[in-house]
Amino acid sequence: MENASQPEQLRAERQFARSVLAGILLLGLVAIAGPLLSYRSDVHEAHNQFQDRLNRESRVYSDAIGLHLKLLKSELERVSLGLGPEMQEERATEDMLDLTSPETGIFRQGVALLDATGKPRWSEPPQLLDTAGSLRNRPWFQRALNQQTASVDALHPGSSTFVVAIPVVRHGRTAGVLVGLLDAEVEVPGSRPSSKYLTLLVLNRAGDLFIPRAPPAWATGPGFAGKVEALLRDGGQQLETGDDEVFAWATSIPGTDLRLVLAGDESIPLAPIRSRLLVQLLTLAVLQLGTLLLFSLHWRRVYRLFLEMERRAAEKETMAALGSAASLIAHEVKNSLNGIKVAVGTLPPSEEHRLAVHTLRGQVDRLAHLATSLLHFGKPPRVQYMLVNLPHLVREVLDGLRVLPEAEEVRVEAHLGEELLLSGDPLLLATALDNLVRNAMEAAVAAKDLGQLSSPEVRVNVRQEDGEAVVEVEDNAGGPPPGFEARLFEPFVTTKPKGVGLGLSMTRRALEQQGGRLTFTRLPGGSRFTLRMTVRPPPKDIQEQTT
Question: Do domains 12-265 and 380-546 have the same CATH topology?
């Protein structure tokens, strides 16, 4: 039955362990779900904030550049009004020097006047546009010449030089074009983005980039101008950069045909959120691992406790059944022994019967001790506390064991002292001491019979130590087999061929009933059993009886 129940027990244990581990895993998933949902929400919010920032800052940059270009147009218009009907240089010299001053000028690269054919009439500094013969075909020149509208554009395709062109109108026709040149990346305010992960681009309709001077590769490919127009029409969107993506937002610069694009790498502002998520997940992983470790340790402890309780319950049931049977057997044995003892007492004390009588009395005493042990095992007696003189009690036990056959072969040394009073049950204490000394004597004689020693010895010491009464019973019988110490005090477990295995178990139980304890120590060549009981004043009723 026991073997058949083991597979079911193992299955139940595995099912329980799987259920608990599944519960811990579920708790771990629930714990991880929180940071993941929070991360998703944070990323979504950061994404929206990033797009709003690009939209907002692109408009701010666009308005700043537009206002600056409007100022440049106004200054050039003021200068153009002072040129006179013949557009003489002398009349605008002072104004042009102010505009092109290296310290305070707003056109530090220079200002030039072009006639209706696109050829320079004069410039400051001189010969500013020597290679400007082809300027007549530039869109900004045609708009100023034909439409008589101010224009801002690149001086040449792909050039980072801004040209601000103002038509000079005389008598309803365009007599020339006054242009101011400036380095867009240096002289235009707001041409540098506020963060290192942002890229600001300024270009015209044709895709000529003014800002920055060294644009990123993804902004110089064919079709980029079309992407910018799509951004203007549809709003911000992702742009492929080859290795990654950037989010870009485009807006028109007021008063010009220029476009401003602000692009940003969204992974940089999201990096702290990802780092926070990794820290949270790492913390959860450590906590989860710690929980599993603590659970494993606790589970092992609880499982061992469960097995111990189950073993004790099974042992208790077995002992109860054995106790009932043992009590019945012991009762019948004692009745028979009483008859044998009476019969032995009727034998004449002659020399020829002395050995037989001595042997019979020894065996009767041994069987009586066994029957008493079985009776006590089946029905443990109640503790009857009395005032006990421990050395005197030990001496009586040793005197009672002199009738054993082993007493003639074992040398018993006793160091008992004068007086050591304690409160206890003298019958239980005497039984416990009898078991200890009897076992030591039998073990010593058995070792002699096996040729392991020549002179069996048993030593009994009684002393007081740290408020406790201590009785030590030592022998030189070699001790129990290695590894047997853990089972010394189990019922029906013995190393003696003719033993029953109840002596030590009953001795320990009798001592624990009185608040004492019994321990075993292996000695070189022998064993030591130590009995300890607290020296307490006897109860008042015992004191009254003794007085």
Answer: no
C-alpha angle 118/124/126, rounded to 5°? 80
d(CA 152, CA 333) in angstroms, rounded, equals 128
> Taking the domain 380-546, which CATH number applies?
3.30.565.10
Give domain 12-265's CATH superfamily.
PAS domain (3.30.450.20)
pLDDT in tens, 193-242: 667 778 888 888 878 787 777 788 888 878 888 888 888 888 888 887 77
For residue 297 the two structure tokens come to: 């340790």
The DSSP 8-state label assigned to residue 147 in this structure reads: I
Rounded Cα–Cα distance for residues 268 and 517 (Å): 72
Alpha carbon distance 98, 90 (integer Å)? 14
- CB contact set of 33 (below 8 Å; sequence gap of 6+): none
Contacts of 37 (CB under 8 A, 6+ apart): none
Question: How deeply is 48 buried, as exposed, middle or buried, from its count of CB atoms within 10 A (0-12, 13-18, 19+)?
Answer: exposed
Pull the structure tokens for residue 464.
């007081």
Written in H, E and C, the secondary structure of 254-275 is CCCCCEEEEEECCHHHHHHHHH
User: What are the residue boundaries of the structural domains of the chain, listed by start?
Assistant: 12-265, 380-546
